[in-house]
Amino acid sequence: MSRTLYSGNRNASSWAFRAWLALREQNIEFDEIIVDIRRPQRWKNLSEIGQFSPPAAVPVLLDGESVIYDSSAIMEYANELGAGELLPKDLVLRAQARSFVAWQHSTFSRVCPCLSFESAFYKEKKQLTANEIKTANWVYSIWEAHLTKSTGAYLFGDFSLADIALVPSVLRLKSHCPVSKEFPLTRRWVQQLLQREYVQEWLNQAYALDPIYCEGYYSS
Ligand SMILES: N[C@@H](CCC(=O)N[C@@H](CS)C(=O)NCC(=O)O)C(=O)O
Asked: How far apart are CA 74 and CA 7, in angstroms?
Protein backbone atom coordinates (compact mmCIF):
# COMPACT_ATOMS: atom_id res chain seq x y z
CA MET A 1 0.00 0.00 0.00
CA SER A 2 1.38 3.43 -0.84
CA ARG A 3 1.51 6.22 1.70
CA THR A 4 1.96 9.91 0.98
CA LEU A 5 2.51 12.57 3.59
CA TYR A 6 1.54 16.11 2.65
CA SER A 7 3.84 18.15 4.82
CA GLY A 8 4.90 21.80 4.93
CA ASN A 9 8.01 23.94 4.58
CA ARG A 10 10.78 22.65 6.81
CA ASN A 11 11.22 26.04 8.53
CA ALA A 12 7.52 26.73 9.00
CA SER A 13 5.47 23.63 9.64
CA SER A 14 6.03 22.39 13.16
CA TRP A 15 2.92 20.18 12.93
CA ALA A 16 4.19 18.45 9.82
CA PHE A 17 7.58 18.03 11.51
CA ARG A 18 5.98 16.03 14.34
CA ALA A 19 4.01 13.74 12.02
CA TRP A 20 6.99 13.24 9.70
CA LEU A 21 9.24 12.46 12.66
CA ALA A 22 6.89 9.85 14.12
CA LEU A 23 6.69 8.10 10.73
CA ARG A 24 10.46 8.22 10.19
CA GLU A 25 11.23 7.06 13.72
CA GLN A 26 9.03 4.02 13.11
CA ASN A 27 10.74 3.30 9.77
CA ILE A 28 7.48 3.60 7.90
CA GLU A 29 7.95 4.12 4.19
CA PHE A 30 6.15 7.04 2.65
CA ASP A 31 6.39 9.54 -0.16
CA GLU A 32 6.33 13.17 0.77
CA ILE A 33 4.81 16.20 -0.90
CA ILE A 34 5.94 19.46 0.65
CA VAL A 35 3.15 22.01 0.44
CA ASP A 36 4.37 25.60 0.29
CA ILE A 37 2.53 27.27 3.17
CA ARG A 38 4.24 30.64 2.79
CA ARG A 39 2.02 33.59 2.03
CA PRO A 40 0.44 34.37 -0.40
CA GLN A 41 0.52 30.94 -2.09
CA ARG A 42 -0.45 29.34 1.23
CA TRP A 43 -4.18 29.91 0.67
CA LYS A 44 -4.35 28.42 -2.81
CA ASN A 45 -2.17 25.45 -1.83
CA LEU A 46 -4.12 24.70 1.32
CA SER A 47 -7.44 25.00 -0.49
CA GLU A 48 -6.20 22.20 -2.75
CA ILE A 49 -5.51 20.12 0.36
CA GLY A 50 -9.11 20.92 1.37
CA GLN A 51 -10.32 19.02 -1.72
CA PHE A 52 -9.52 15.75 0.05
CA SER A 53 -8.92 16.68 3.72
CA PRO A 54 -11.61 18.73 5.54
CA PRO A 55 -9.28 20.83 7.78
CA ALA A 56 -7.42 22.08 4.66
CA ALA A 57 -4.18 22.00 6.62
CA VAL A 58 -0.95 20.04 6.70
CA PRO A 59 0.07 17.46 7.70
CA VAL A 60 -2.20 14.92 6.02
CA LEU A 61 -1.34 11.30 5.42
CA LEU A 62 -2.88 9.49 2.46
CA ASP A 63 -2.72 5.79 3.21
CA GLY A 64 -3.97 4.04 0.09
CA GLU A 65 -7.47 5.44 -0.26
CA SER A 66 -7.67 6.56 3.37
CA VAL A 67 -7.11 10.12 4.57
CA ILE A 68 -5.61 10.64 8.02
CA TYR A 69 -5.37 14.27 9.02
CA ASP A 70 -4.01 16.16 12.02
CA SER A 71 -0.52 15.63 13.39
CA SER A 72 -1.70 13.95 16.60
CA ALA A 73 -3.71 11.32 14.69
CA ILE A 74 -0.78 10.68 12.34
CA MET A 75 1.61 10.34 15.30
CA GLU A 76 -0.69 7.84 17.00
CA TYR A 77 -1.09 5.96 13.71
CA ALA A 78 2.68 5.82 13.21
CA ASN A 79 3.02 4.46 16.73
CA GLU A 80 0.47 1.72 16.10
CA LEU A 81 1.96 0.81 12.71
CA GLY A 82 5.24 0.41 14.57
CA ALA A 83 3.86 -1.86 17.31
CA GLY A 84 3.34 0.80 19.94
CA GLU A 85 6.98 1.48 20.70
CA LEU A 86 6.49 5.24 20.89
CA LEU A 87 4.29 5.15 23.99
CA PRO A 88 5.10 3.70 27.43
CA LYS A 89 3.77 0.23 28.26
CA ASP A 90 2.58 1.37 31.67
CA LEU A 91 -1.01 2.66 31.59
CA VAL A 92 -0.45 5.73 33.76
CA LEU A 93 2.82 6.69 32.07
CA ARG A 94 1.10 6.29 28.72
CA ALA A 95 -1.64 8.68 29.83
CA GLN A 96 0.98 11.14 31.08
CA ALA A 97 2.90 10.97 27.81
CA ARG A 98 -0.37 11.76 26.04
CA SER A 99 -0.85 14.69 28.42
CA PHE A 100 2.39 16.21 27.14
CA VAL A 101 1.24 15.67 23.56
CA ALA A 102 -2.21 17.11 24.33
CA TRP A 103 -0.81 20.20 26.06
CA GLN A 104 1.47 20.82 23.11
CA HIS A 105 -1.45 20.31 20.76
CA SER A 106 -3.89 22.55 22.59
CA THR A 107 -2.37 25.53 24.37
CA PHE A 108 1.41 25.29 24.40
CA SER A 109 1.72 27.85 21.60
CA ARG A 110 0.58 30.41 24.19
CA VAL A 111 3.94 29.93 25.88
CA CYS A 112 6.07 32.78 24.46
CA PRO A 113 3.75 33.18 21.44
CA CYS A 114 6.15 35.54 19.62
CA LEU A 115 8.80 32.83 19.50
CA SER A 116 7.28 31.00 16.55
CA PHE A 117 8.76 27.87 15.03
CA GLU A 118 9.89 30.02 12.08
CA SER A 119 11.87 32.24 14.44
CA ALA A 120 14.03 29.32 15.55
CA PHE A 121 15.78 29.65 12.17
CA TYR A 122 16.43 33.40 12.27
CA LYS A 123 20.12 34.29 12.36
CA GLU A 124 19.42 37.43 14.36
CA LYS A 125 17.31 36.62 17.36
CA LYS A 126 15.31 39.26 19.15
CA GLN A 127 16.13 40.26 22.72
CA LEU A 128 13.75 38.38 25.00
CA THR A 129 11.61 40.27 27.49
CA ALA A 130 12.04 39.50 31.19
CA ASN A 131 8.67 37.79 31.08
CA GLU A 132 9.69 35.56 28.15
CA ILE A 133 12.87 34.52 29.99
CA LYS A 134 10.84 33.76 33.11
CA THR A 135 8.34 31.72 31.10
CA ALA A 136 11.03 29.74 29.25
CA ASN A 137 12.70 28.91 32.57
CA TRP A 138 9.37 27.88 34.04
CA VAL A 139 8.95 25.41 31.14
CA TYR A 140 12.51 24.12 31.67
CA SER A 141 11.74 23.57 35.35
CA ILE A 142 8.70 21.46 34.41
CA TRP A 143 10.77 19.35 32.01
CA GLU A 144 13.53 19.05 34.62
CA ALA A 145 11.11 17.83 37.30
CA HIS A 146 9.72 15.29 34.90
CA LEU A 147 13.13 14.06 33.74
CA THR A 148 14.13 13.58 37.39
CA LYS A 149 11.46 10.87 37.59
CA SER A 150 12.26 9.31 34.22
CA THR A 151 13.98 5.93 34.12
CA GLY A 152 15.81 6.77 30.89
CA ALA A 153 17.24 9.56 28.80
CA TYR A 154 13.86 10.78 27.56
CA LEU A 155 10.73 12.12 29.25
CA PHE A 156 9.24 8.66 29.69
CA GLY A 157 12.35 6.51 29.73
CA ASP A 158 12.53 5.48 26.10
CA PHE A 159 11.98 7.94 23.27
CA SER A 160 8.24 8.54 22.92
CA LEU A 161 5.55 10.64 21.25
CA ALA A 162 5.92 13.11 24.13
CA ASP A 163 9.51 13.83 23.06
CA ILE A 164 8.49 14.04 19.40
CA ALA A 165 5.66 16.47 20.15
CA LEU A 166 8.06 18.76 21.99
CA VAL A 167 10.92 18.91 19.46
CA PRO A 168 9.68 22.11 17.74
CA SER A 169 9.00 23.79 21.08
CA VAL A 170 12.38 22.79 22.42
CA LEU A 171 13.90 24.35 19.34
CA ARG A 172 12.02 27.65 19.44
CA LEU A 173 12.59 28.15 23.18
CA LYS A 174 16.17 26.91 23.38
CA SER A 175 17.32 28.88 20.34
CA HIS A 176 16.25 32.08 22.13
CA CYS A 177 16.93 31.16 25.74
CA PRO A 178 19.66 28.55 26.28
CA VAL A 179 18.91 26.03 29.00
CA SER A 180 20.99 27.03 32.03
CA LYS A 181 23.09 24.74 34.24
CA GLU A 182 20.27 24.94 36.76
CA PHE A 183 18.49 22.32 34.59
CA PRO A 184 21.16 19.67 33.89
CA LEU A 185 18.77 16.88 32.88
CA THR A 186 16.90 19.19 30.52
CA ARG A 187 20.18 20.30 28.94
CA ARG A 188 21.13 16.67 28.31
CA TRP A 189 17.66 15.76 27.05
CA VAL A 190 17.56 18.74 24.67
CA GLN A 191 20.98 17.87 23.32
CA GLN A 192 20.05 14.23 22.74
CA LEU A 193 16.72 15.11 21.22
CA LEU A 194 18.17 17.57 18.73
CA GLN A 195 20.98 15.19 17.80
CA ARG A 196 18.64 12.40 16.72
CA GLU A 197 19.22 11.39 13.13
CA TYR A 198 15.81 12.29 11.72
CA VAL A 199 15.56 15.49 13.74
CA GLN A 200 18.90 16.49 12.23
CA GLU A 201 17.74 15.52 8.75
CA TRP A 202 14.71 17.85 8.98
CA LEU A 203 16.65 20.65 10.65
CA ASN A 204 19.52 20.62 8.17
CA GLN A 205 17.01 21.17 5.39
CA ALA A 206 15.25 23.88 7.42
CA TYR A 207 18.45 25.82 8.12
CA ALA A 208 19.27 25.81 4.39
CA LEU A 209 16.08 27.73 3.52
CA ASP A 210 15.49 31.46 3.47
CA PRO A 211 13.96 32.45 6.81
CA ILE A 212 10.25 33.22 6.93
CA TYR A 213 9.80 36.39 8.94
CA CYS A 214 6.72 36.65 11.13
CA GLU A 215 5.14 40.04 11.70
CA GLY A 216 5.82 41.62 15.08
CA TYR A 217 8.73 39.36 15.99
CA TYR A 218 11.32 42.13 16.44
CA SER A 219 8.86 44.66 17.85
CA SER A 220 7.29 42.42 20.51
N1 LIG B 1 -4.10 20.65 14.56
C2 LIG B 1 -3.45 20.57 13.28
C3 LIG B 1 -2.82 21.91 12.97
C4 LIG B 1 -2.19 21.90 11.59
C5 LIG B 1 -1.83 23.29 11.13
O6 LIG B 1 -2.23 24.32 11.70
N7 LIG B 1 -1.07 23.29 10.07
C8 LIG B 1 -0.71 24.54 9.44
C9 LIG B 1 0.64 24.46 8.83
S10 LIG B 1 1.87 24.13 10.06
C11 LIG B 1 -1.72 24.74 8.37
O12 LIG B 1 -1.79 24.01 7.42
N13 LIG B 1 -2.55 25.73 8.60
C14 LIG B 1 -3.57 26.04 7.70
C15 LIG B 1 -4.66 26.81 8.33
O16 LIG B 1 -4.61 26.98 9.55
O17 LIG B 1 -5.52 27.24 7.60
C18 LIG B 1 -2.42 19.46 13.30
O19 LIG B 1 -1.91 19.17 14.38
O20 LIG B 1 -2.14 18.85 12.27
From this structure: 12
